[in-house]
Amino acid sequence: MKVAPLSAALGVEVTDVQLADLAGASLDALKRQVFENGVAVIRDQQLSPDQHIAFAKRWGGIDVNPFFPTNSGWPEIAEVRKAEEQKDNIGGGWHTDHSFDSVPAMGSILVARELPPSGGDTLFSSMGAAYDALSDGLKATLAGLSAVHTADHIYQPGGYYSHTDLADEMTGQELSTRAVHPVVIRHPVTGRKLLYVNGAFTTHFEGWTREESLPLLGYLYSVASREEFQCRIEWRPGSVAIWDNRATWHLAQNDYHGHRRVMHRITLTGDPLAA
Ligand SMILES: O=C(O)CCC(=O)C(=O)O
Ligand SMILES: [Fe+2]
Question: Is the CB–ligand 1 distance for residue 90 below 6 Å?
Fold first, then answer.
């Protein structure tokens, strides 16, 4: 297994390994890379949907996302698809998947199935680097805060996706979600302190109004989306990305109109979060 950094802040590119047969100490080494670096892109994979599912189970449980279409033919696999005629994409703004769950998903394993001729990169940002960049004074303020997360304004009728051309594909519109998490969490494996709010699902600080919360949340988002804390995954046929939702944000670039892009995503079960 060969490992090279994607940027100074986060991410690694992994070559010379086949995930389909990865187990034991080599699998542990790859998990360590993901936990320490936030995201790994593994190149040149031959991973059938059944092998994708079998590999995901070697990380723990699988969470089925109730909102994404599972029309891949495998109930464990969500299809993240943009058709030629679609203008909107899934995950086009900075976010952390599933932060609206009381035990949010650990991360995801995303397999490139059909790629546009160019574009369609996925950006990641380091929530450890974002936290480290804050002043001691702001860190002390955040240490006492929790935030409320929900997906109701995204997936429910009248929500964000209902105004896009992805509306027909989304499921679970009847579901209501709400979770409260510390604003700064400790990574369950590495112990690193991480900023844990995101513009897609965090609505306000617990005990504060939304109006009171927005200026500080906006400041935190401006730090977390700094270019110096990012890395970029340029997809190629056979590429697989594994990311840690606790330690990163991500954003799927929507710059390939007129072309089709299909990704297979399996979401990995996480651990309870703690400050
Ligand atoms: O399509 C992508 O690159 C990522 C989309 C996304 O946000 C996700 O699968 O969670
Ligand atoms: Fe996402």
Answer: yes
Instruction: Look up the domain containing 194 and give its range.
Output: 63-233+242-268
The overall average pLDDT reported for the chain is 95
Q: Is residue 225 part of a domain?
A: yes
**Residue 13 forms beta bridges with which residues?**
4, 41
Cβ–ligand 1 contact at 112 (below 6 Å): no
pLDDT digit string, tens, across residues 135-184: 999 999 999 999 999 999 888 788 887 778 877 777 778 888 899 999 99
CATH of the domain at 78: 3.60.130.10
Q: Which of 265, 267, 268 to mutate to test the pocket of ligand 1 (most atoms within 8 A of CB)?
A: 265
Question: What is the 220 CA–ligand 1 centroid distance (Å)?
Answer: 22
- Is 194 a member of any domain? yes
Asked if 3 contacts 29 with a C-beta cutoff of 8 angstroms, the reply is no
| 150: number of Cβ within 10 Å | 17
Evaluate whether residue 17 is within a structural domain.
no
Q: How many domains does the chain have?
A: 1
pLDDT score for 68: 78
Task: Give the CA radius of gyration of the chain.
Answer: 18
Q: Express each pLDDT in 249-275 by its tens digit.
A: 999 999 999 999 999 999 999 999 999
- Measured from the Cβ of residue 30, the count of other Cβ atoms closer than 10 Å reads 21
